[in-house]
Design a protein that fits this description.
Blueprint (H helix, E strand, L loop, with lengths): L1 H14 L4 H6 L2 H19 L7 H19 L4 H17 L8 H13 L3 H13 L4 H14 L3 H12 L4 H5 L37 H8 L23
Helix pairs in contact: 1-4, 4-5, 6-7, 7-8, 8-9
Length: 240
């Protein structure tokens, strides 16, 4: 809806001299408010304070201004129409290719994982993490992909990154498939875990690991008084 609002604003801004009603509604204070909000949203997004759909705002503004310009400047209509067509094409392209978007890269990572392309899943999840996607979500997705590749080194490194994070909520928030406390808590990449009959557990089997359960019940306290939960995992079978 905010994109629609900026489309209307752009159209009224360009055509307010043609239509008296627009000039009365869109005074200088309102114009300043819209522009200040646009710049402010970009700043908040870049500073990772608040994620805002700035692309929608800017695209809507340019489209509204373009339509208004097409209506006002008749001699340049062909040029303006070409610009509008390019704008629409560029905006539509984001539906299919948007490597600058953490939401799109997350989607690509999930899609790759579901099809069994774990290396591609890791690539897109790492890109999503760099772009500001939720850390816990990214770490969980990366760990799953590394586990399916049987890459124990990188799998355990994800746990180290989580445990060493300065973000307390990211450290203590359990993964969606993680059981903490007195429940089952295990790491399927740990070679020391075996069932009573000596075989390795499958990803879907619940294995009681006394060492990890004890750590989960008595998490280590840091100098600041904060604590992190031991990183145990329980995952579904890897898609193939």
């Amino acid at each position: 809806m905010s994109g629609v609002g900026y489309t209307l604003f752009g159209f009224m801004w360009v055509t307010r001299k043609r239509f008296v009603g627009f000039e009365k509604i869109l005074d200088q204070r309102t114009i300043n408010l819209f522009l200040a909000w646009l710049v402010g949203c970009v700043f908040l997004t870049l500073s990772h304070v608040w994620r805002v759909g700035n692309t929608v705002h800017v695209s809507g503004l340019l489209f509204g201004m373009g339509v208004g310009a097409w209506l006002i400047f008749e001699p340049q209509r062909k040029l303006i129409a070409t610009g509008l067509a390019l704008l629409v094409f560029g905006s539509s392209l984001e539906l299919f290719w948007a490597p600058w978007s953490f939401a799109w890269t997350s989607w690509r990572g999930e899609r790759a994982y579901d099809t069994g392309d774990f290396k591609a899943s890791i690539h897109w999840d790492q890109r999503s993490l760099e772009l500001g996607q939720d850390k816990v979500w990214c770490w969980q997705s990366l760990a799953l992909a590394y586990y399916c590749l049987d890459d124990k080194v990188h799998y355990l490194r994800i746990g180290e990154q989580r445990a060493g994070s300065n973000d307390l909520p990211a450290r203590v928030a359990p993964f969606s498939h993680e059981l903490v406390g007195s429940l089952t808590c295990f790491d399927p990449a740990d070679d020391r875990l075996h069932l009573p009959d000596g075989r390795r557990p499958s990803p879907t089997e619940a294995v009681i690991d006394a060492r990890r359960q004890e750590q989960a019940r008595n998490p280590p306290f840091l100098a600041t008084g904060e604590w992190s939960i031991d990183w145990g995992r329980q995952v579904d079978a890897c898609p193939r």
